[in-house]
Structure formats: structure tokens, C-alpha cells
Amino acid sequence: MATILQKVSQGCVRCTSRQWTAVRGGKKWNVQRPKPRVWKARVLESITRPIYVEDIVPISQSCEKLEITTQDTEVDEYEEFMYKQVKKMFDENTMILVCQMLSMPTVDKRKAINTMKDNGMRLWFYNNRLIRRAITEYSQYKNMAPWIIGSNVYVVCPEPKVKEALKILKKIPDFIVLGGLVENSLYSKDGLTHYSQLPNIEQLRGELVSVLNMAAGGKTHSLLESHQQTLCRNLTQYVKQETDGEDNS
Asked: What would the pLDDT profile of 18-38 be if each residue is shown by its tens digit?
């Protein structure tokens, strides 16, 4: 048994001492330039290849198909919801200022929103496509179309607080005022500045009441009837001259 194990161990040593070399067997497959098919197979393939005839559709039928496809398109419910919000913005607010928004950090944007909210105003960010759709429906707002370009922000308020809005926007250099809609009238940037310098409606009413009180007594009545009295005097004088002329003749 010992002699058998000794012979096996000597054979293993001899096998491990040999040097093995790798030899590539066969030819590498040419992938870039494959071998062409047999001529007979190529002729048979070209003869048996099917020929497809294109269906010629009249223009009228193609137009009908286009109309059907446009009618069958699904309505985006989220876009319709946002469009209703845009219409609500135009219906419920008497002041809508359009501002061009430059690139600004989110922290500054949130600060501007809170500042407007503290002063009774709101900032809205809507897609230009929805705004254009709304102003085409409202004919009185069509002239706002040149302002709806780029990234816009809208300062809205139920009351015409133009003076307060411009005062706040001066402190936000990233918001550039383009114009606005105030009490169903469109104003440019200069027009909004002039509008903000006008006195308050309550002040104007007080001045009117004071003027009417100064004209107390019969002055207001006499001023209102001065034209009628002048006309009556002129007619009386004309009739008197006509009667005197007939008597002399």
C-alpha cells in the first residue's frame, strides 16, 4: 500500500511540473463583414418578397378623421381646474398687476408672498397658456396679451391698493412691473404710478360735500337755474321788441 501511494504522489508531482500553453482552436467569426448568402437564395428572396400597395385616402376623409381625433381627445381635469382658478382671479379682484419675475431664491419668493398676504394682497403663479386662454374669452382683457411673456407673477387684490402694491414691489428688485388691470381699465407702469398719486375716493367725496356746503342758501339753486333765467330774459326782451315794432308800424 505504501508503494502504491508513493507512485501516485510521484505522478502528481510530475504533472504539476509540466508547463501548459493556451492554443486558439478554429477561426474567429467575422461579425463586421458576414459572408454573403448563396446567389440562388438571394434571387429567391427577391422574387418572393411581398409588395405592399399604399391606400390612397382622399383629403376630405383625412380631414374627417382629424376632426374625430380632436373630438375624442381626453380633457385634462387638472388643467381645467387651474383654468377655473384663473377665471376666478379675474372675476373676484379689481386689481391685477402683471410683473416679470427674475431668477430668485425660494426663500425670497416665500418672503414676498408673506409680505403681500400681510397687506391684504396675494401673489399667484399661473401658466401663460391658461392666462392667454382666459384673456381671449374676456374681450376687455385682450390688450394684456403683450405682457404674457416669460415667467410672470400676478399681484391681485379685491380692492385697488395700487399705492401699497407699488411701494412693496419697489423693495423687491426681482419683480419688474409691466402693467396692470385696475377697475376694468388697463394701465401701463407709468399709468399705475400716476394712479397711485391720485387722492383717495373718500377724500374726493369730502371735498365735494364741502363745496356744496359752502354754496348754502340760494346760491346753489341760483347757479343751477342761471342759464334758464338768462334764456327767459332774452326771450322776454325779444317779444317786447317785436310788439313795439308792430305798434310803430
From this structure: 566 666 666 666 667 777 888
